[in-house]
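Supplementary Text 2. Reproducibility record for the structural model of the 387-residue chain.

All settings were left at their defaults, and a single model was retained for analysis rather than an ensemble. We include the record here because the model underlies the residue-level annotations in Supplementary Table 4.
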Amino acid sequence: MSTSLVTTSVRKVRPRFSWFRTLSTNQPENGSPSPAETPAEPRPWKDPGGRSVLLFPGQGSQFVGMGHGLLRYPNVGEMFEAARKILGYDLLSLCLNGPEEDLVRTVHCQPAVFVTSLAAVEKLNHQNPKAIETCVAAAGFSVGEFAALVFAGAMSFAEGKRALGVGRPTLPDSFSLALYAVKVRAEAMQRASELAPGGMLSVVGKAQAQYKHACLLAREHCRASGVDEPVCAVATYLFPDGRVIAGHRQALDFLRHNASRFHFLRTKMLPVGGAFHTELMSGAVEPLREVLRKLEVRRPEISVYSNVDGKRYMSEGHVRRQLTRQLTAPVKWEQTLHEIFERARGERFPCTYEVGPSRHLGATLQRCNRKAFDGYVHVHPTADDEP
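Retained model, structure tokens:
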């Protein structure tokens, strides 16, 4: 029997939201060992029936208008006000009004998806608090992993915002420091994208498609065209026969023009500004590593799964290492879903909530595990569907 989702901490599963209150009251007393020093508690088996999983989307899920009506929910206004102070611009206005060409820029999009996804969790907590109280696992796609870790209590009070140069907003440090880390990540990835322009190509292939071989031929084509050290590699494993390939645009154009040769059924360029999760993002690694070094990171209170290998985070050091590696490593989303939802025949599936601007993760879940998808719900980051 799988021990992935059906296990959870012996600690009582507490509501994450208002996660502000939960985290701010969950600090070690003076003289107590820090969470990093405390041995991991055993996680006994628990029936997943009646429990929930939260999935947080990533860049590319954004749209102008997200966040509309969410200020009615507790803490959401404070979240956007904190974002204004930390980012230096009005994120709420950008989300609601655009323009789209500004919202899609990496430097703006990543903080926007992070904040609106956590705002959608507040909406879910208002509509269905049991979904939060019974949550046993979370995962996030790319930048969504930061939202999943904040939700799970893994990013908490640091030695001080003074080290980061962040002024104190009205929210606890868990949200503010994580948002600051997302800001640094987005700015570093934006710079890397401008220094080494690239793109991302979504591919759905036949069973005989050989993605790595196609990337090899694309790199050879680039070299013959005069591109030094060309990059073209699988950047995301979405679902069986579904991949995202990223790299230099000449390589992606080669793949598109030779799609039938490589047994690709469909190809589509993604609305992102760089070749994320490839070596073209190597320039962003050190800025992110530096800011993560300054943050206090906790072992997540619930299971959170890493994009790098699809496995659960086990310690604070593990979180820091994997978040840094994630910049240049492929996102193993298909493997993550298998790890979360694999179970014995007849074992019940949890309810799954995608909290954020799109249904993209639900679509991948449907491709990977139709039975798990039967319990899928999308929590839209607007209040338009409210009565």
